[in-house]
Amino acid sequence: MKKNFTLLLLVVAAAIAFSGCTMTKQVAYFQNMEQVDIESTSMMPEIHIKPNDELTILVSSITPEAAEPFNMRLYANQTSNFGSSTASNSLYTYIVDKEGNINFPVIGKLKVVGLSRTEAEDLIRGKIQPYFSAEEKPVVKVRYASFKVTVIGEVSGSRVITVPNERLSIIEALAQAGDLSIYGKRPNVLLVREGPDGKKVSVRYNLNDANIFNSPYYYLEQNDIIYVEPQKARARSADVSSYTFWTPFASIAMSVATMVISLTK
């Protein structure tokens, strides 16, 4: 009986160790980092303008009066806590219509969909150059006013992330959402992206694999949606709060206790 009991304990210990190793393998990120070449990772690709994007456009030159007709501004009076009124202004936001156009002052309709910010700046500069003297070289700055990424699913906090510098990786987005919960499927994170032509594409990330750093989808674009799918145990649960990280181990412990009681009777 004692020999059987010792054997049983060894088997249970091995099962617990195996369960712990399996869970670690499912949860750990970038497990093959030593085998992946990330030194040659490509630079962030240029982002292209899409329908419904919101843009701000600033034109400047050595003669401010010459540039002013091309700068649409919103003016508003603001009252301070001390009762004084001050005038403030901000740049007008251009919304790219479904045909990919904006209505730019003096020039009229400009098709910007599919262009990078640099290409849009070159296009506008070429259109307005005739309105300046030959010596003047107007400077055009195009910026996104609504660069946002949505992260939902099995993360600590679903959210819409505003990206002021137009640069955000999949890893940074998940970190800002509080990282995946223990139940998030790390090998199967979904990206949904809409292209300049309005067509949507979907891509799957494997966070266990360090090759994610070499993915052409490593950096996100405006209006990307990231969805973290739950594991089956979470999806089947009617009361998600009843699950904990230690549930598998508790189940094993209960089985061990039952077997021990049976053997010692």
Task: Please give a quick description of this structure.
With 265 residues, the chain is an alpha+beta fold.
Explain how this protein is built:
With 265 residues, this protein is an alpha+beta fold. The protein has helices at residues 2-27, 64-67, 117-128, 170-176, 232-236, 247-264; strands spanning 54-60, 73-79, 85-91, 93-95, 101-104, 108-111, 139-144, 148-153, 159-162, 184-194, 200-205, 225-230. A five-stranded mixed beta sheet has the order 9-8-12-10-11. Strand 2 (73-79) and strand 3 (85-91) form a beta hairpin. Helix 1 packs antiparallel against helix 6 (247-264). The chain is elongated and about 65 Å long.
| Topology as a string of helices (H) and strands (E) | HEHEEEEEHEEEHEEEHH
Low-confidence stretches: 5-23, 84-88, 240-245
Structural class: alpha+beta
Strand order of the largest sheet: 9-8-12-10-11
**Principal-axis shape:** elongated
Instruction: Tell me which oligomeric state these chains represent.
Output: single chain
How many runs of DSSP E, i.e. beta strands?
A: 12
How does the major sheet shape up?
A: 5 strands, mixed
Count of helical segments?
6
Compute the separation of the termini in Å: 11 Å
Give the overall pLDDT as a whole number: 81
Please give a handful of descriptors for the protein shown.
five-stranded mixed beta sheet; 27% helix; 27% strand; 265 residues; single chain; alpha+beta
Write the layout of secondary structure elements.
Layout: H1 2-27, E1 54-60, H2 64-67, E2 73-79, E3 85-91, E4 93-95, E5 101-104, E6 108-111, H3 117-128, E7 139-144, E8 148-153, E9 159-162, H4 170-176, E10 184-194, E11 200-205, E12 225-230, H5 232-236, H6 247-264
Parallel strand pairs: 8-12
Antiparallel strand pairs: 1-4, 1-7, 2-3, 5-6, 8-9, 10-11, 10-12
Helix pairs in contact: 1-6
